[in-house]
Amino acid sequence: MSKNTINNHLYIGGVSAFDLVRTYHTPLYVMDESKIRSQCQMFKKHFVSDHIETETIYASKAFLSLAMCELVDSEGLSLDVVSGGELYTAHQAGFPMHKIYFHGNNKSLEELKLAIEYQVGTIVVDHRHELLTLINLIPKNQKINVMLRVNPGIEAHTHEYIRTTHHDSKFGLSIYDESTLDLIKEINQYDSLIFKGFHSHIGSQIFEEQSFIEHAQTVLTYISDVYLKTGIVVEEMNLGGGFGAKYTAEDKPFELKFFLPTLLEHIGETSKKLRIKVPKVFIEPGRSIVAEAGYTLYTVGGTKKTTSGKQYVFIDGSMADHMRTALYQAKYDAVIANKLNDEANTSYTVAGKACESGDIIIKDVKLPKPEANDILAVKTTGAYHYSMSSNYNRLTRPAVVFVKDGKSKLIVQRETYQDLIRNDLKLED
Ligand code: LLP
User: Orn/DAP/Arg decarboxylase 2 N-terminal domain: which residues (predicted)?
Assistant: First the structure.
């Protein structure tokens, strides 16, 4: 019997799904804290080299809360934020501001002001307009570390919405555009800026090692070109995130603990060939740290068979807490947490309760016969689920619970109906 199965029931982090549901109700996001920590530790241990300085930054867009900031800090990772809201959350959690990297293609004036006030470690500038806005905000005698978001034009095989470096991407400036070089020279002329290097990110949920290697080689070649054409030495290179996670048996992520040292080796060799100083290398994983640690628990309501024989199982959540199937046609696996070892030989479509035909959680999953009040556990929901949830249909966002060593800890409370109207004003107010 697996350690996740006792008496035909699913256990997560040593806690039974049944107990979690009884205590916190459904829908419920459950995160296995040890799994998140061990992924953080894996990056700390394997993204290292004797010859290259490295840093792992957690991409907080995948999942962020005060407790997650504390966890990331305690594991010694830095933090990538892309909005004032993420930045504020990190600040409120007491996350060290010098370990923050502030991204985004259209940071507002208020967001830039906040970043300067908090003295974040590095601002990743997306384009010239943003650069000029930033310059005007920096107080006298303050210096800001900046990186420039560049687009190396690598095509990684992933969904169009999450592929970021094709040539028409909204992110960053193309390395094939001469004006990018002019901007680099311009950045170097400002006393209030310390130009650190380049940031780029080729997409998300990528399974080909070669895409990352090609990416690093392309940026290094650009670093060499920049040096030859301008004399500017680029000290740092942030390669972004994008490592794939396993959602279903079809997904075959590569072993990061073997790949990360190989990537660094390639970076060392390529730098040598190009005769450039090997830059400090950063990576920014989000999904690969949290996705597989997460489960969403739902209570089964009705079931229904259509005239053509399609079998629906309805749950008490929806696309409001599980957006990725509707948005990306993403595939998921699930089990009935209280019938773990029962034979699963019939295919079901798991549908939510939102008022929209596209509100499908899983198109096709084999389950034992579902009955009302069963607990459905959808796997691999730790990344881009809570962070992409909404209040569509005025549904309340689920609670989030960390589980570890047989204990659970509530880290985000379930929203209430009062929360839903918190910002509403009546006509007569
Ligand atoms: N760094 C930057 C600059 C990024 O834009 C992203 C993701 C990451 C790091 C982290 O990538 P990861 O390691 O998580 O793949 N909502 C989509 C994913 C969008 C990713 C956007 N950027 C999804 O649910 O699949």
Answer: 34-291
